[in-house]
Structure formats: C-alpha cells, structure tokens
Design brief:
Length: 287
C-alpha cells in the first residue's frame, strides 16, 4: 500500500487497551560508586549504574506525587508504591567517567536518561481504586487510548481511528503496514498540530486531513502506535508522501528524546521529568 494525496489505503481494527497500562515517566538521574578496597573497576561501574537507576525510580515517584492532585492518602501511597517497584530502562547514557575523591579514592559517576515504568499489578490496583477512570481523570498519570468501532475490516471498508487522553498531551500517531513501512498519520503535512486537549475525542482522519483509510491489499496483521507525552516529543525524520509522512528507524526511541527541564517551586525543585504514554493497537484486515 502506498499513500497518495487525499486518500491512504489501510486495513485497521483497533482494540482499546486499559488506561494507565502504557504510562511511564522519563527522567534523568545521576549515580556514583567508589572502589574502596573490595571492588574492581567493573564492579564499581555496575554499582554506579544501579545507583543511578535507584535515583531515577525515586525521582519518578517524587515527580508523580508532585503532579498528582489525588487527595486519598491510600491511593497516593499505592501510586508511589507502583513506581517504587518500577522497571527502569536506560534510554541514553549522557555522561560517565572516573574521578578521584579525596576521602573515598577512585570513584565512577554517570548521568543517564531513563524511562521508569510502574509495576503493572500495582498500577492496576490504583486504577481500580480510582474507579477505573484513568482515561477520564486529569489528576491521574498521563493515559491515552485508541480505538475504532470494529475489530476486523473487510476489503473496501472505510474506517476511522479515535484518540483520547486524560490530560493535555503531545502525540505522534504511526501506522505500521504489513510490509514494515511506517506511516505517520499525525501530525501530517496538512494537520500539523501535535498538541491535544484532555477529555476530547479526536478522529483520524479528521478536519484538515487529506487522506482516507480504505481497506485494500495486502491484508494481514498491522498496528497503530500512539506516542504521547506532557512535553513536546523528540524529533523523528520524515518524508512527505501525499497527505501523510513516511518515517524510518525506531520511532519509539526517537519520540522519547524529550528535552527535560527541572522546575523550581517554593522551597523545592521538581525533578526534571515528563509523563510518557505509549499505546499500540493491532489490526486485522481481509475477506
């Protein structure tokens, strides 16, 4: 399938995913470790990485707590617990190196950019206690949802994708074809806005778009991914193809290249972090 002006043949059936399931926090953190008498240089570097990941998880929990307006003490406690047991993924090592500490001797330090994903079971409990309203609750962590009215589309049928978030967010919507091609549906050459309001359902195609989504060969299993954040997403190289963009490379990694800025409020500084959410919906097409 190839995109052409005013129309774009695709085959889609989106299944909605639970709110908060793809929520995470992108944060930068520093870690340090010293050799002492017991550690090798390699062990010291490993400990510095572990320290940086620990700091990242703690910073993410602090950030989520600072951004949350949840007044229920138990609910807030569960939310923080979900981040305390989080998975920390290193997106980029920003700085690293050995240095000499007068008291501790040879030490190793690093600064990393990470994605902190809360424990899935714990975040599910939070959503349940909140009444399952994560996608409608602007005080909850960023959550996005994609869906259509059908789960399977037949040849020549036309469909729309729907997008919704629980709070204002920036987003990129990418469709992956059977042949592996990645098509960026939003933003596109004629609908450049990438910022969306929370609580509002957006249609794709919608006002300003110059393509339709018509089912045509080749048929099979495809997907749509939504990358969303409370700050502008990282840049992705694009090539205009009619009413859409063709993109190459790892869109997820590039989208996570968000510029982080710490904010000063009162007597404390909120960690340099942003909320991030990724949702993917698989699709099937054919007779």
């Amino acid at each position: 399938m190839r995109p052409t002006p005013f129309w774009f043949a695709v085959a889609i059936a989106l299944i909605a995913l639970p709110a908060w399931a793809g929520s995470s926090t992108i944060v930068e953190a520093e870690g340090n470790a010293c050799m002492g008498d017991d550690l090798s240089r390699k062990q010291t570097e490993t400990q510095a990485m572990a320290d940086a990941k620990r700091v990242a998880a703690e910073s993410a929990a602090t950030y989520v707590r600072s951004q949350s307006e949840v007044e229920d003490a138990m609910l807030t406690k569960d939310l923080i617990a979900a981040y305390s047991a989080a998975q920390v993924t290193v997106l980029e090592v920003l700085q690293k190196g050995w240095y000499r500490d007068q008291a501790a001797g040879d030490c190793f330090g690093m600064r990393i950019r990470t994605e902190v994903t809360p424990d899935e079971a714990a975040i599910a409990r939070v959503a349940k206690k909140a009444g399952g309203g994560g996608i409608d609750d602007p005080t909850a962590p960023l959550a996005v949802k994609v869906w259509t009215s059908q789960e399977h589309y037949r040849p020549s049928e036309r469909m729309q994708i729907y997008l919704k978030g629980n709070k204002p967010f920036y987003a990129r919507v990418v469709y992956r074809q059977v042949d592996g091609a990645q098509i960026q549906l939003l933003p596109n050459p004629y609908r450049g806005a990438n910022h969306f309001q929370g609580g509002v359902v957006y249609a794709i195609p919608g006002d300003g778009d110059r393509f339709d989504l018509d089912v045509s060969p080749p048929f099979g299993k495809e997907s749509v991914s939504v990358y969303a954040s409370t700050a502008p997403l990282g840049e992705v190289p694009t090539q205009e193809a009619g009413g859409v963009y063709v993109v190459e490379g790892d869109v997820g990694v590039r989208s996570r290249g968000i510029k982080l800025v710490a904010s000063q409020g009162g007597s404390h500084t909120t960690p340099a972090a942003v909320e991030f959410a990724e949702e993917q919906a698989e699709m099937t097409t054919g007779p």
